[in-house]
Amino acid sequence: MDHRKGQPLARDAMAYVLAGGRGSRLYEMTDTRAKPAVYFGGKSRIIDFALSNALNSGIRRMGVATQYKAHSLIRHLQRGWNFLRPERNESFDILPASQRVSETQWYEGTADAVFQNIDIIESYGPEFMVILAGDHIYKMDYEIMLQQHCDSGADVTVACIEVPRIEATGFGVMHVDESDRIVDFVEKPADPPAIPGNPEVALASLGIYVFATKFLFGELRRDAATPGSSRDFGKDIIPYLVKHGKAQAHRFSDSCVRSDGESQSYWRDVGTIDAYWEANIDLTDVLPQLDLYDHRWPIWTYSEVTPPAKFVHDIDGRRGSAVASLVAGNCIVSGASINRSLLSTGTRAHSFSMLDEAVVLPNCEIGRGARLRKVVIDAGVNIPNGLVVGDDPELDATRFRRTDKGVCLVTQPMIDKLAL
C-alpha cells in the first residue's frame, strides 16, 4: 500500500469507537448507563482511554457509535470531547443508532454499527479506519499498529494480547504462523491454540482492528448482503478475512505506552465488579501498574471546575485523613478515615466514618460512623449514618450485590430498601 513517505499515518486515519454495549456483568452499575460511560479512576470514564489513545496517537477524526442507555455517555462526550475543530481538519461525531438505514433497524452488531454510517465516514475521506472497543483500560499508540498494517500488506490487522493459554477460553483467540499471520480465529475455544514456539501462551483479540477504508466498506457491504450474518466483526468479518484474505496479528506489547514506572504492558477488561474494583484499587499502589500521571500520554476527559479536596478535624478518632488513596476535587473528608480507597469528584465523608479499599463514584455522601470495606459505591448514593458493610458476609449478601471475592456493590435503590 502506497503512502506519503515520512508522514504519520494517523493523520489520514479515523478512529471509530464501538460504545453501544451494556456490560451486563457489571449488573446495577449499568442499569442507567452504558459500560463505556462507567466512571473510572476518580474523574474519567472508561471510554476516555480509547479516545485519549486516538488523540495522543495523532488521530484527529473520531466517531463514537452509541446504543444502549446512551444519555450519560453522550452528555459526557459533548462536554469533554467538544474541542476537536472542523477548521483544523478535525471531527468528532456521536452516532446513536438512529434507524438511518431502516425504520426498524437498530445496530445489529459491531460491523453493522459501522455499515450504517458509511456515508458519514465517506464525507471525511479517511484512508484508514481504526475500529476500537470503548470499554477497556489501556494506553496504546495506534500509529505503530497503522505502520505495521501498511508494511505487512494485510487486509486487516488485529491487535492481540498474550495471555496464559488456560485463561484464553473467554476470548477470541488467534492461531498464527511464524510471521504472525492469522491462520485461524476461534471464538472462546475450550482448547485455545498456542503461539508458535510457546505452548503455554495464546494470542487473544482485543477488539481493535485496522483496515484501509475502501476495503472495509467493501467487506461491510458484502457482509450486509450475506443471509444469516450476525453483522459482527469478531463473529463474521474477521473469520471471513482469515479464510479469504490476509489477516495479520499485531502484538499489544509492541505499541503499549509505558511510563518509566510501568514495567509491564497494561490492558484490563473491567467488565465484572471484581475486575472493576481491582483496577481502581490498584491505582492506590505506590507504583501502580497503570500510570495516570504520565504527562506524555494524558488521559483526556471532561474536567469539571471544582474546588480542591479538603480534609478537616484533627482529634483522635475524628481525624480527616487519607492514606494510599486517590481523592478527586470537590471532596470533603470531614473527620473520616480513608485507607487504600478512591474517592471520585464531589464525595463527602462525614465524621467517624471509615473507608477501607472502597471505590466511591461521584457525588456520594458517607454518613457519620459508617464503616465500609471492600465496596463499590455507585454514583449519587447516600450512605446512612452507622452503616457497616464488609464485616458480615451473609448479611451483606442479603442487602447488597456481593461477589464471590467479597466485593459489595452498593446502589441507592439498595440503600432505600434498608429503610423500608
Automatic annotation (TrEMBL):
<feature type="binding site">
    <location>
        <position position="107"/>
    </location>
    <ligand>
        <name>alpha-D-glucose 1-phosphate</name>
    </ligand>
</feature>
<keyword id="KW-0320">Glycogen biosynthesis</keyword>
<dbReference type="GO" id="GO:0005524">
    <property type="term" value="F:ATP binding"/>
</dbReference>
<protein>
    <recommendedName>
        <fullName>Glucose-1-phosphate adenylyltransferase</fullName>
        <ecNumber>2.7.7.27</ecNumber>
    </recommendedName>
</protein>
<keyword id="KW-0321">Glycogen metabolism</keyword>
<dbReference type="GO" id="GO:0008878">
    <property type="term" value="F:glucose-1-phosphate adenylyltransferase activity"/>
</dbReference>
<feature type="domain" description="Glucose-1-phosphate adenylyltransferase/Bifunctional protein GlmU-like C-terminal hexapeptide">
    <location>
        <begin position="307"/>
        <end position="410"/>
    </location>
</feature>
<dbReference type="Pfam" id="PF24894">
    <property type="entry name" value="Hexapep_GlmU"/>
</dbReference>
<dbReference type="GO" id="GO:0005978">
    <property type="term" value="P:glycogen biosynthetic process"/>
</dbReference>
<comment type="function">
    <text>Involved in the biosynthesis of ADP-glucose, a building block required for the elongation reactions to produce glycogen. Catalyzes the reaction between ATP and alpha-D-glucose 1-phosphate (G1P) to produce pyrophosphate and ADP-Glc.</text>
</comment>
<keyword id="KW-0547">Nucleotide-binding</keyword>
<dbReference type="InterPro" id="IPR005835">
    <property type="entry name" value="NTP_transferase_dom"/>
</dbReference>
<feature type="site" description="Could play a key role in the communication between the regulatory and the substrate sites">
    <location>
        <position position="106"/>
    </location>
</feature>
<dbReference type="InterPro" id="IPR011004">
    <property type="entry name" value="Trimer_LpxA-like_sf"/>
</dbReference>
<feature type="site" description="Could play a key role in the communication between the regulatory and the substrate sites">
    <location>
        <position position="67"/>
    </location>
</feature>
<dbReference type="InterPro" id="IPR029044">
    <property type="entry name" value="Nucleotide-diphossugar_trans"/>
</dbReference>
<feature type="binding site">
    <location>
        <position position="172"/>
    </location>
    <ligand>
        <name>alpha-D-glucose 1-phosphate</name>
    </ligand>
</feature>
<dbReference type="InterPro" id="IPR023049">
    <property type="entry name" value="GlgC_bac"/>
</dbReference>
<dbReference type="Pfam" id="PF00483">
    <property type="entry name" value="NTP_transferase"/>
</dbReference>
<feature type="domain" description="Nucleotidyl transferase">
    <location>
        <begin position="16"/>
        <end position="284"/>
    </location>
</feature>
<keyword id="KW-0808">Transferase</keyword>
<keyword id="KW-0548">Nucleotidyltransferase</keyword>
<dbReference type="InterPro" id="IPR005836">
    <property type="entry name" value="ADP_Glu_pyroP_CS"/>
</dbReference>
<dbReference type="InterPro" id="IPR056818">
    <property type="entry name" value="GlmU/GlgC-like_hexapep"/>
</dbReference>
<keyword id="KW-0119">Carbohydrate metabolism</keyword>
<comment type="subunit">
    <text>Homotetramer.</text>
</comment>
<comment type="similarity">
    <text>Belongs to the bacterial/plant glucose-1-phosphate adenylyltransferase family.</text>
</comment>
<comment type="pathway">
    <text>Glycan biosynthesis; glycogen biosynthesis.</text>
</comment>
<dbReference type="InterPro" id="IPR011831">
    <property type="entry name" value="ADP-Glc_PPase"/>
</dbReference>
<feature type="binding site">
    <location>
        <position position="205"/>
    </location>
    <ligand>
        <name>alpha-D-glucose 1-phosphate</name>
    </ligand>
</feature>
<feature type="binding site">
    <location>
        <begin position="187"/>
        <end position="188"/>
    </location>
    <ligand>
        <name>alpha-D-glucose 1-phosphate</name>
    </ligand>
</feature>
<keyword id="KW-0067">ATP-binding</keyword>
